[in-house]
Amino acid sequence: MGDPVTVHPSLLVKDLLFAYPDGHQALHGVDLRIEPGERVALLGPNGAGKTTLVLHLNGILAPGAGTVEVAGMAVRKDTAQEIRRRVGIVFQDPDDQLFMPTVREDVAFGPANFGVPDVPARVAEALAAVGMAEHADRSPLHLSGGQRRRVALATVLACDPEILVLDEPSSNLDPVARRELAEVLLGLGRTMLMVTHDLPYALQLCPRSVILDDGVVVADGPTRELLSDTALLARHRLELPYGFAL
């Protein structure tokens, strides 16, 4: 018998501290562990440190102290290329990710740059996964907001990431596009960290939620339990839509 295979968490953040050059301490010793296949929502008010945390996950920011690992690989300058393939960030604005003449070229750009094998097959698979295969030869400029959000997701999926990081995925989507995106995300079977102010979307997509406020993890547990705690939500400037029933 061979040695047992070690299964690393998809994401492991330990005692992460970070201060901006102006002295503002944005993260105060953040710990976060996400196992393969988990879907976790990252909640918190504006200025809580959510974006700062996300920018550490693929090495855009370097910690003042603490560590970040993706599938057992430490995030460092010398691992940056592979880390950026493993951490697939889907930005809030698709225009930050879509810049090629056609959908197909946009989705091919990432895997081609990362040296991923068999790029055409990866592109076809990623577009099929988000329901956009028939739009491969269209310009992203001629798609609806919801379609562009799904193409942006495909650009990341084509690189076969270890973890998907979604920044406000439901923002500016109409109800149908919002539902279609949720169905796509639930069907992927991928490890996800979803940064969102949309608490009902967090409940729909993520069994677990983490609340970050003032650079500290203040709660971590089942999403329904956290959203049922009105005092907790109020303390951290979070609020369910009026009339929303859990």
TrEMBL record:
Keywords: ATP-binding, Cell membrane, Membrane, Nucleotide-binding, Translocase, Transport
Localization (cell): Cell membrane
Domain ABC transporter: 11-239
Origin: domain of life: Bacteria
Gene3D superfamilies for this protein: P-loop containing nucleotide triphosphate hydrolases (3.40.50.300)
The keyword Nucleotide-binding is assigned to this record: yes
GO CC term, one of those recorded: ATP-binding cassette (ABC) transporter complex
Pfam family, one: ABC_tran
Any one GO MF annotation of this record: ATP binding
Sequence similarity: Belongs to the ABC transporter superfamily.
Entry-linked PANTHER family: ENERGY-COUPLING FACTOR TRANSPORTER ATP-BINDING PROTEIN ECFA1, HEAVY METAL TRANSPORTER
UniProt name for this protein: Cobalt/nickel transport system ATP-binding protein/cobalt/nickel transport system permease protein
Organism listed in the record: Pseudonocardia oroxyli
